[in-house]
Design the sequence.
């Protein structure tokens, strides 16, 4: 197999969850550029319609579906629909996610459960739904979008950190259980990336100065910048391609060096 072919996704069907915009959109765009057919879902028709238009603007004919990834019946029904309308999923990216920044003692159990439901239970549900066909097909790639919070805690993100820490271990367990079927399950751990999800952490102050958290992240990142969704495209293609067929159960941190660095002296 030629070197470039190792990184090609030609002939593959990739499903990226929650990918109307943000990190998922960037990953799906990279997969299309590498030759894959793109399937994505989002939580409502308006987002899906906007996503289809956004992909079309990139020259990509994406198959968009409405589906709440926490709803197992809806996910199983969608997998059957995708297999009928597009084909068997070769590459799954569990990207859909939410965060609630609330001090733990002020967070309700319902709010905690909601974050865990989307960020951990849903990757279980969706992975479970696509694995049987991957086994029949003789190969599969599952990529879970983890986080710095798969390794580190911080104030107000207890539910998110618990979920993303669990997602790291779910990644390793899927690797352990299905590696023998030539299914590789890995994670990507983005650092702090400029998307709508982190917009509140980057808002300029009334006097025009940086948000304190923005300055904090700059000081904690050797690259001295926030990540862009484009920084994730290459690593995502690598983990979806034949080039990573012997990489399994690994969390690839794409964080500009945050996890390696004690932080700039004030
Ligand atoms: P985002 O901008 O909030 O996008 C998340 C997407 O998932 C949205 O389209 C959202 O739809 C969708 N979604 C949420 N709940 C869903 C559900 N139940 N079913 C289907 N779709 C659902 O987030 P992002 O920044 O692109 O992050 C994407 C992933 O990367 C998440 O898992 C996040 O935890 C992770 N991550 C982000 C960063 C970062 O710095 N941005 C860093 C590390 C990891 P709605 O618009 O309706 O909510
Ligand atoms: C936060 C941020 C982070 C990022 C990301 C870091 O509030 O700390 O939202 O959690 O989203 O997960 O990797």
Sequence:
């Amino acid at each position: 197999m030629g070197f470039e072919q190792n990184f090609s996704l030609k002939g593959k069907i990739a499903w990226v969850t929650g990918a109307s915009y943000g990190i998922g959109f960037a990953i799906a765009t990279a997969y299309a550029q590498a030759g894959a057919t793109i399937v994505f879902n989002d939580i409502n028709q308006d987002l899906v319609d906007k996503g289809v238009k956004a992909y079309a603007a990139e020259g990509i004919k994406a198959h968009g579906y409405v589906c709440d990834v926490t709803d197992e019946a809806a996910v199983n029904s969608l997998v059957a629909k995708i297999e009928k309308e597009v084909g068997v999923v070769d590459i799954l990216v569990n990207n859909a996610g939410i965060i609630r920044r609330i001090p733990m003692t002020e967070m309700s159990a319902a709010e905690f459960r909601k974050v865990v439901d989307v960020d951990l239970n849903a990757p279980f549900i969706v992975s479970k739904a696509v694995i049987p066909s991957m086994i029949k097909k003789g190969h599969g790639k599952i990529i879970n979008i983890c986080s710095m919070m798969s390794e580190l805690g911080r104030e107000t993100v207890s539910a998110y950190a618990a979920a993303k820490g669990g997602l790291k271990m779910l990644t390793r367990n899927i690797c352990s259980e299905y590696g023998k079927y030539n299914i590789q399950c890995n994670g990507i751990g983005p650092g702090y990336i400029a998307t709508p999800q982190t917009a509140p952490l980057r808002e300029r102050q009334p006097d025009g100065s940086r948000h304190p958290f923005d300055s904090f992240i700059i000081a904690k990142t050797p690259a001295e910048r926030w990540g862009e969704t484009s920084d994730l495209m290459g690593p995502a293609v690598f983990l979806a391609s034949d080039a990573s067929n012997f990489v399994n159960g690994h969390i690839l941190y794409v964080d500009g060096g945050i996890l390696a660095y004690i932080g700039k002296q004030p």
About this structure: The mean pLDDT is 97. Helices lie at 3-6, 22-33, 45-57, 72-85, 109-137, 158-178, 212-220, 233-240. Residues 3-193+227-260 form a domain with the Rossmann fold fold (CATH 3.40.50.720).
